[in-house]
Amino acid sequence: MAYGRPNMGGMNQKQMMKQAQKLQEQMMAAQAKLMETEFSASTGGGAVKVTVTGDLRVKSLSIDPDAFDPEDIEMLEDMILAAINDAIGSAEAASSQQMSALTGGLNIPGLF
Question: In this structure, are residues 95 and 54 in contact, taking their beta carbons and an 8 Å threshold?
């Protein structure tokens, strides 16, 4: 019976650390790129348009003046919320897809 470190599939600890560091660098680059990416959504046939960045910050909000009815402010509020949530959903999906591509689909705690 042999004692000591397990073989780890032929990969030594130094190689594993090197691969982990490379993955970390790739993930940091992907996150930086994602933060610069813009995601847009619109509702009400384009009456409300929202753009968010990959770090989920609202960059712009545009409301068509014809969409504003002072008698029905709730509808405008709903359109704004829907557009923001759609844009954020797109950003989150892109982030998840990008990280999944880097990790090979592994669900690594703390990454997402």
Answer: yes
Under 8 Å CB-to-CB from 47, ≥6 apart: which residues?
Answer: 63, 64, 66, 67, 79
Q: Over the stretch 30-64, which tens digit does the pLDDT of each residue have?
A: 888 888 889 999 999 999 999 999 889 999 999 99
C-beta separation of 60 from 102 below 8 A? no
Architecture of 43-98 per CATH? Answer: 2-Layer Sandwich (3.30)
Determine contact, residues 62/48, Cβ cutoff 8 Å.
yes
CA distance linking residue 51 with residue 58, whole number of Å:
6
For residue 64, the Cα-to-chain-centroid distance in whole angstroms is 28
Separation between Cα atoms, residue 54 and residue 80, nearest integer Å: 19
Domain extent listing, the chain: 43-98
The verdict on pTM exceeding 0.90 is no
Q: Under a CB-based contact definition with an 8 Å cutoff, are residues 86 and 41 in contact?
A: yes
